[in-house]
Amino acid sequence: MSDVLASLRHLLPSERVLTEPSDLEHYGRDWTRQYPPAPLAVALPESVEEVQALVRWAVEQNVALVPSGGRTGLSGGAVAMHGEVVVSMQRMHRILDFDPIDRTLTVEAGVITETLQQAAREKGLYYPVDFGSRGSSQIGGNIATNAGGIKVIRYGLTRDWLAGVKVVTGTGEVLECNRGLVKNATGYDLRHLFAGSEGTLGLIVEATMRLTDPPRAPQVMVMAVPDMDSLMQAFAMFRARLPLTAFEFFTDKALAHVLAHGGKRPFDSEAPYYVLVEYETPDEATSEAALAAFEHGAEQGWLIDGVMAQSETQAAELWHLREGITESLASRTPYKNDVSVRVSRVPAFLADMQALFAREYPDFEVVWYGHIGDGNLHISVLRPEAMAMQDFVTECGRVTGMLCEVLQRHGGSISAEHGVGLLKKPYLDTIRTPAEIELMRQMKRVFDPHGILNPGKLFDS
Amino acid sequence: MKILVGYKRVVDYNVRVQVKPDGSGVATDGVKLSANPFDDIALEEALRLREKGVAEEVVIVGIGPADLTAHLRNGLAMGANRAIHVTTDGAPQPLTAARTFLKLIEKESPDLVILGKQAIDDDANQTGQMLAALWGRPQATFASELAIADGKATVTREVDAGLETIEAELPAVITTDLRLNEPRFIKLPDIMKAKSKPIDVIEFDSLGVDSGDHLKTANYAPPPKRSKGEMVEDAAGLVAALKQKGLL
């Protein structure tokens, strides 16, 4: 093993090959906590050429590589637990080009999401993919997981903003996919293979991201909702009447955790569900329409109470009620499900899901919230203090298997936006057919014939 | 008891302000405007006094152009009983604002005037003090705690040496500090209700206020840009660079 390390050190300057136990632990895991990290080393390349050299070296030495961005993933996709070399993109963080006519930013893979958003803003434009981990996650990881988040209802997923991507495949070859073109009807669009590839097809080294106009005077409301039917009715109404940029919901349990962690209670009324609505207010008429919508919802009994932000500070405080959920639960290391169904199937699915949890998780606290406008629910199951972690994970795994059956019945997915990684791998075959999985395996072999790129993630090859 | 509250509209605290290219001021076109945070605290405190039964009426005051109405409606939605809108296209400086308040005090005879300690646009921190002097009444500035009893206000103030507690006989002027309270969110049903609350519109010129706007703005300039960091080779290079800048 020391020969392998020695040859790696030959490849990169010594300060960019890390082997300290604390570094191995830090770079060897993501936001999941149940996989003990055990990489061989961490490599910090600074250029495409160095990434190529790393891949060629890995083929030669038969060492697996785990591409690594901000490691904010929730499915174990960036975990290294079997002596792999973690390839961290954190030193590849340059913004390479801005094109005002194409309205694109070309960046290295290690650029942090928030940095990209900020860079767009400085140009008077907007990069709309946004989520809680914006301050740590990197654009390469966003692409590798086809990240979604809180603005999908309006702006779609990372894939929809990907104008071009440069990757190093498992043979060390560099591919420049699509090169920023709007139209390019020349066969298979390989760019989209890399969106959601979870590091199994190639190392993403650069990306050209499309930008758009910033939202016009976004306004935020938080409202209390008496039941799920009312929530769906309110959703339909707001979507019909307002230019929505977000429609997020959370339960009373979720709110209680955020309030216990310093969140500010929006109003005294209590309800089982809460919804955060963000919309543009390009003119006075839209502001009026929002109030009228609330009034109508209140008359119909869909909405019990509500507040509206009067300043950016208050808007941030209201957003924190939704975005602070993950953090408020973090110390409990919850078991997470991230499921989706078609929006039209949400009520029927939820009824079945709640029945399942009531039956199978009688003693566990289950906190759920999510992007109702995308048909996407996040479910965090909290471990009772007295229960051992391993028993807890086993039990949640068992119920997740049953959740998959419910999802199958409703035509849904076991991973809406977190990816498959290690955590959802056992359930992939409940959502994708054997034929599909076999095709994916064959595709991986084409891009990564030596099987060195993030092996064991997504599926076993 | 009646409480008069100053309720100014400023560029939102979270907006990164841009200086106009000609240096004549700060760009406000298309920029998010919100209540001055200290004024929100002033209004919140007045509302809490009313909710405790100490006060009966809370009146907010805004001085500004016609489109200030929407801003005053927010204050009414937050809970003020009524609003007074002194209309002017200008942006009165602290002395003019204080004189305007004095005129309104003569009309309204409030028992308490609560103002923000400063507005975050000009950061003058003068209006409350000037008003107390013109009115000939006590002032308690930078309040972080307020209690009213027996015709007196007991005010805890944040001062350099710690906390100072003073008593002021009412009527008095109190200005708010950040830690006095945390303003509530505005409830949507209250936004509807606020539409029928009264706003008295008074032309600034009809008040007969002597302008105190004696300050002339010479020029606005953004702060100098931070220069980029320099990489040095080693510790010796660092020492040399610091010496060169006269820092060692």
Give the uncertain stretches of chain A in residue-range form. Answer: none
* Order of strands across the main sheet of chain B: 9-8-7-10-6-1-4-5-12
CATH architectural arrangement of chain B: 3-Layer(aba) Sandwich
Q: Give the mean pLDDT of chain B.
A: 94
Biggest sheet details of chain B = 9 strands, mixed
Q: What's the Cα radius of gyration of chain B?
A: 22 Å
Organism (chain B): Oleiagrimonas soli
Protein name (chain B): Electron transfer flavoprotein subunit beta
Domain Electron transfer flavoprotein alpha/beta-subunit N-terminal (chain B): 23-211
Family (chain B): Belongs to the ETF beta-subunit/FixA family.
Layout of strands and helices, then pairs:
The complex is a heterodimer of chains A (461) and B (248).
Chain A: H1 2-11, E1 17-18, H2 21-27, E2 41-43, H3 48-61, E3 65-68, E4 85-88, E5 95-99, E6 104-108, H4 113-122, H5 139-144, H6 152-155, E7 162-169, E8 174-177, H7 191-194, E9 202-210, E10 218-225, H8 228-241, E11 244-251, H9 252-260, E12 273-280, H10 284-300, E13 305-308, H11 312-330, E14 335-340, H12 346-360, E15 365-371, E16 376-382, H13 389-409, H14 428-431, H15 434-447
Parallel strand pairs in A: 2-4, 3-4
Antiparallel strand pairs in A: 1-2, 5-6, 6-9, 7-8, 7-9, 10-12, 10-13, 11-12, 11-15, 14-16, 15-16
Chain B: E1 2-6, E2 9-11, E3 33-35, H1 37-51, E4 57-64, H2 69-78, E5 82-87, H3 94-108, E6 112-116, H4 127-135, E7 139-149, E8 152-159, E9 162-169, E10 172-176, E11 186-187, H5 188-194, E12 199-203, H6 235-244
Parallel strand pairs in B: 1-4, 1-6, 4-5, 5-12, 6-10, 7-10
Antiparallel strand pairs in B: 2-3, 7-8, 8-9
Helix pairs in contact in B: 2-5, 3-4
Could you characterize what this model shows?
The complex is a heterodimer of chains A (461) and B (248). Chain A contains 15 helices and 16 strands. By secondary structure, chain A is of the alpha+beta class. Chain A folds into four domains: 2-90, Uridine Diphospho-n-acetylenolpyruvylglucosamine Reductase, domain 2; 95-210, Uridine Diphospho-n-acetylenolpyruvylglucosamine Reductase, domain 3, CATH 3.30.465.10; 218-326, Alpha-Beta Plaits, CATH 3.30.70.2190; 333-435, Alpha-Beta Plaits, CATH 3.30.70. In chain A, the strands form three sheets. Chain A has a seven-stranded antiparallel β-sheet with strand order 13-10-12-11-15-16-14, with helices on both faces. A five-stranded antiparallel β-sheet of chain A has the order 5-6-9-7-8. Chain A has a four-stranded mixed β-sheet with strand order 1-2-4-3, with helices on both faces. In chain A, helix 8 (228-241) packs antiparallel against helix 10 (284-300). Chain A is globular, with a radius of gyration of 23 Å. Chain B has 248 residues and is of the alpha/beta class. Chain B has a single domain, classed as HUPs (Rossmann fold), CATH 3.40.50.620. Chain B has helices spanning 37-51, 69-78, 94-108, 127-135, 188-194, 235-244, and strands at 2-6, 9-11, 33-35, 57-64, 82-87, 112-116, 139-149, 152-159, 162-169, 172-176, 186-187, 199-203. In chain B, the strands form two sheets. A nine-stranded mixed β-sheet of chain B has the order 9-8-7-10-6-1-4-5-12, with helices on both faces. In chain B, helix 3 packs across helix 4. The longest helix of chain B has 15 residues, at 37-51. Chain B is globular. At the A-B interface, strand 10, helix 10, strand 13 and helix 11 of A face strand 11 and helix 5 of B.
